[in-house]
Amino acid sequence: MADGAGPSRRGVRARPSLRLKPMAALNEIPFIKGHGTANDFVIVADLLGKRDLTAAEVRFLCDRHTGIGADGVLRVVRTEHVPEFSKMAASAEFFMDYRNADGSIAQMCGNGARVFIRYLDAVGLITESDVVIATRAGLRECKMNSDLSITVDMGPATQPQTDAIPLVGIKDELWPAVAVLMPNPHAVTFVENLDDIGSLETPPPVLPPTIFTDGVNVEFVVQRGPNHVAMRVHERGAGETMSCGTGACAVAWAASERYPNMDLTANEGVRVDVPGGTVVVRMLANGHLTLTGPATLVARGTVLLPA
């Protein structure tokens, strides 16, 4: 035994080091958290388009127990660095790469678009109140209003080319729904009481399956009064959320087709109450729907993605 050494411990392995790896060796990225009427998002800046997120990474970021927690991820990229959409770069400097919580891709997200604009303004990437952004649904004109709300031109509401009427399962009954594309698919179901539909954590069955082959968002709606409705929603790839922007547009459009006292062209638009607050939908002269509501940034930090 060497001088000054303690007793030998034959057969016992040395304890592994508990030190963390140097931070530079970790898969660390900055993020900002925001929400629009409690529809919440993790925002990841990737201006040069070098950090495309995998579906597994998106699921990790959105996990409310082991990640940050959100209904979806907004990746901010300069449009010129997104090859399949680079032709839109002349009209829109920034591309909104939106992913659902399960890692799947969606064409558009109305609440996410407002949060996207709020982020661009907060970090100094835009200086004007009127901004055009690129999305998978095309170019979207946005406006920051003096009351701090944000308005997004969501494009027109259309319907699938089918004669079939969607039927949505609620408990043991099938209810007729209205099929709407914004362009995300929606099945809008009018009910008497929002509490009677029960939990929306699992997707309600929608028949026949041939109408929405890529899944569908399901909205349940009640009329509150003239130009006023309330809704709950199950979003495909996310579950029940506190709000859905494209869903609010689909609901307002379907309500205006159903009720004579719903005037989408009125200056005040149609008020849509969601569990997370209120948004307003209005139809422009060109048939496009606008979505107006709040957008808030709540936190920023860094996150260690799984290796």
Any key phrases for this structure?
307 residues; globular; DAP_epimerase_DapF; 19 strands; lysine biosynthesis; disordered N terminus; 5-stranded mixed beta sheet; 11-stranded mixed beta sheet; DAP_epimerase_AS; diaminopimelate epimerase
Summarize the structure.
The chain has two domains: 26-152 and 296-304, Diaminopimelate Epimerase, Chain A, domain 1; 167-293, Diaminopimelate Epimerase, Chain A, domain 1 (Roll). 11% of the residues lie in helices and 38% in strands. The protein has 307 residues and is mostly beta strands.
Molecular structure report:
It is a single chain. The chain is built from 3 helices and 19 strands. It is mainly β. It has 2 domains: 136 residues, Diaminopimelate Epimerase, Chain A, domain 1; 127 residues, Diaminopimelate Epimerase, Chain A, domain 1 (Roll), CATH 3.10.310.
Instruction: Tell me the CATH topology of the largest domain.
Output: Diaminopimelate Epimerase, Chain A, domain 1
Number of helices: 3
Number of domains: 2
The end-to-end distance, rounded to whole angstroms, is 42 Å
Shape field = globular
Secondary-structure-based class equals: mainly beta
Strand fraction: 35-45%
Low-confidence stretches: 1-5
Helix content: 10-25%
Q: What is the CATH level 1 assignment of the largest domain?
A: Alpha Beta
What does the main sheet amount to? 11 strands, mixed
CA radius of gyration: 23 Å
CATH superfamily annotation of the largest domain: Diaminopimelate Epimerase, Chain A, domain 1
Q: Mean pLDDT across all residues, rounded?
A: 93
**What's the number of extended β-strand segments?**
19
Instruction: Sketch the topology as an H/E string, one letter per element.
Output: EEHEEHEEEEEEEEEEEHEEEE
CATH architecture of the largest domain: Roll
